[in-house]
Amino acid sequence: MQTPIYMDNHATTPVDPRVLEAMLPYFTKVFGNAASRNHSFGWEAEKAVDNARKQIADLIGATPKEIIFTSGATESNNLAIKGVAEMYAERGNHIITSATEHKAVLDTCKRLEKQGCRVTYLPVQRDGRIDLEMLEEAITDKTILISIMYANNEIGVIQPIAEIGKLAHARKILFHTDAVQATGKVPVNVQTDNIDLLSLSGHKIYGPKGVGALYVRRKNPRVQIAAQMDGGGHERGMRSGTLNVTGIVGLGKACELCNQEMPAESKRLAYLRDKLKEGILSQLDECYINGSMEHRLPHNINISFAYVEGESLLMGINDVAVSSGSACTSATLEPSYVLKALGVGEDLAHTSIRFGIGRFNTEEEVDYVIKRVVETVMRLRELSPLYDMAKEGIDLSKVSWAAD
Amino acid sequence: MHRYYFDHNATTPVAPEVLRAMTPCFSEVYGNASSIHYFGQQAKLRLEQARRQVAGLLGCEPAEVVFASGGTEANNLAILGTVRQAARQRRHVITTAIEHPCVLDACRQLEKEGVEVTYVRVGSDGMVSPDDIRAALRPETVLITVMYANNEIGTVQPIGEIAAIAREAGVYLHTDGVQSTGKIPVDVQELGVDLYSLSGHKLYGPKGTGALYVKKGTLLGPILFGGRHERDRRPGTENVSGLVGLGEAAELARRGLPAEMPRLAALRDRLERALEERIEFAGVNGKGSPRVPNTTNFYFDFLEGEAMVIALDLKGMAVSSGAACSSGSVEPSHVLTAIGLSDERARASIRFSLGSQNTEEQVDALVEAVEGAVAHLRKLSPTVGSRQ
Predict the structure, then answer these.
(1) Is the pLDDT at B388 greater than 50, yes or no?
(2) Class assignment of domain A5-10+262-394?
């Protein structure tokens, strides 16, 4: 076993060697511009892109023509939300999303608010899921879009997507889901779930960085979006720019592998995750799991370790790469807004760790992580007067602290 | 059959050295550059090395390099990002008629948002006149965007002179450097531009990567939202492997340029001379103007460029009749019509763009193939006999 161990697979994943192998010829040999319509270098590149489109469509129950390639999920989310807001501006200006969305969705919505859109940020329940009744109540005759993530990047909680889709469909409102963390990990089907727009990313599913896709429904209803990047009219006018053929081939292969291996792999991941959870919880008290265990990605667990400083814990287990939350906000010292939205207190939110188990993690590594986490938390708590006081039955919230 | 590639302005193969630099970043150094742990830091180190390499090619500070997903995004970010950020009364942009579609379309998008755009004409030599730029200036002008080298005819615009005009007027100058980067020396400080776009796959780097030089102090808002990457100018997980490739490509270009420029110019001249000598009713579009050394655009009267491209492909020669983005379109090239070609002649034109792997033998084989194809196609053309 090699250290450090990477267990931060919600932030990014290594490229699967089989994906890299599929990509390699397209760098130096089949290097054409897929838009070069009149020579064989271009045709071969286009053929590869078409094949990838099909591999992606197959993973999510779409048709190849419904797949638009982008530079990643941030762009997909921007394109979906701004693209709908612009295209359907005459029909309405109200968007419903949730408080635990990724920044790419929240920041885009905030931008639209500045431009005159109205956005409802639904709170989530203690388990991290939105309340469907609240969603229904939030709908107005101006609502054009519901954007709710499929699975959360910090706590892995899966939203009631099928129910949201059904509701949106019945009310003739478009439904976008940021499925970056769910695609390839749990079965996703845009047909059965009535999803109109779906964002996915290559580097979260053992594909390359710098490539993503947006599913845009073509039938029942035919969804239109306004392009956010202009020039050349690639991707049926929805997204211009020379196609990243190598990246797209990699994304396609990554989707195909996920599709093939999901049944067995999700069981293996769930087993490892449960082992990690039990291993920690059976040896440590005062640990709290954040978010629903029932509706959760098989490879995620997010635990708050009371009476331990999050930063000290991360440094204490520095041969294990995990994180205290989203990589995009990791430079800030703010506690996770996702955990806050769940009602987790600031103290506990500061001591939370996200574990994201991946395709290349082994049981031996999980055992090692359990050992390192348990010994480090125990050591830190030995140094913590708060933990002692709590153990003695003192209610810390009632203690009045003297300034020294 | 040999397959020779003469369409390097559409895209280039990734250089072996570039691929070698990228390979470890897929499955070994795979961290998210925003993660604070070991894996993230390792990725960040490579990313910042790439930023220094790009800065080295452009002659700017690493902090002035914003990474993007390609030339299209870099151009969109430069144009939309400055104009939307500008004060309300600054609502005028100057560009030219021969820009790449991504610049023209970004300008059209701004027009929809109430911005006025002046499209400056170019001469039959394919050159923008600095005087025309000066004449187009208004008090409310916020941005001038003029490409450095044209993608179809290769003419190199007098950016330095335009920069002086822009500076005097207090207007930002952006230049689309997608086709000049790696083909001629570029020093953004010397040029005096505020924004400069480049693309990885046009300089033997990977597709899906690009960069925008943003001079320190330039007011530029993001066009994508979600995260604080790239100093709040471009959110999204950094494409580490791709950008490492872009960095390496930039470094190779910087080192290789002094030798490669004269080599390509000699090949290009050899091609032009042979075609001019051997084929009648043919000539170079934009000849005599300063051009990048790898590009030549030929008209072959009395035939269809598209038919010619296909005929050449059958002989194993990849060329193009214009920009790849608009290939397959029936419209004549907006660049060629802008320099005064008739629709007919514009449709009868072919772009040859040479690159690192092309040799004299390949060029000679291309000349043979072109001569054969022209003769064959003209024999089928009803218009030829009447003029001869």
Answers:
(1) no
(2) alpha beta
